[in-house]
Amino acid sequence: MGMQTGAHIVWDWNGTLFHDNDAIIGATNAAFAELGLAPITLERYRALYCVPVPKFYERLMGRLPTDAEWAVMDATFQRHYSVHRSRCTLADGVTELLAQWRSAGRSQSILSMYGHDELVPLVKGFGIEAHFIRVDGRTGPSGGSKAEHMVRHLAQLELSGVEPARTVVIGDAADDAVAARHVGAGAVLYTGGSHSRASLEGAGVPVVDTLGEAVAVAERLAG
Description:
By secondary structure, the chain is an alpha/beta fold.
C-alpha cells in the first residue's frame, strides 16, 4: 500500500478479528484433561484469563507452574488449538470493516501473540491480507506481554509513515492497552474475545461490545 498518512489501526488477531473463543476453551479443557486439571467454562475463563499466561494458571492451580510444567501446558494447548481453530471464522462484519477503513485511505496492520508462522497463512486463508500493510505474529517463547513486540511492530510501521500518536490498538485484552500505552498509541478494548467486560474496564481505555464501535472510537482517538 506504500507510504501511509493519517489514522492507523493495529488489530489484535485471536479473540478480535478471529472469533476463536470456542477453540480457546476447547483446547484449554483438552489440555487440562491431559494435565489432570478440572475443566472450566468459557465464563470462568474470561473472568480469570490474564497475561502473562502463567499467571492465569496460577489463578487456577493456586501456584505458579514451574518452567517445566509451563512448557508442557503451552505445548499441549497449542497442539489442541491447532485442531479446534479449523472450525472458527472471522468475527461478524470484519471483512467489511477492514475494506471500509482501507477504502477511506487509512492504514491498518495486525500484531498478534499467536506464532508468526501460523498466523500469516491463516490471515491469507481468509483472503484479507491485502488490507494490511504489515502482519506480525509472535516470535520467540509464548506467554509474555505484547509490549515489546509492539515496540518492534511500530518501529517498522514508522518506516511507512505511521505515527504512534495517530495509531490505535484494537484488542480483546488489557495487555493490548498496556502495549499501546508503552508506545504512545491509543487503545480500544472489545468484549467479544477472551476477557470479560469487568476485567477490561480497569485498563483505563474505551471498552466496546462490537468491532464496529471499536473502529468508530479509533477514528475519533486518531483524529
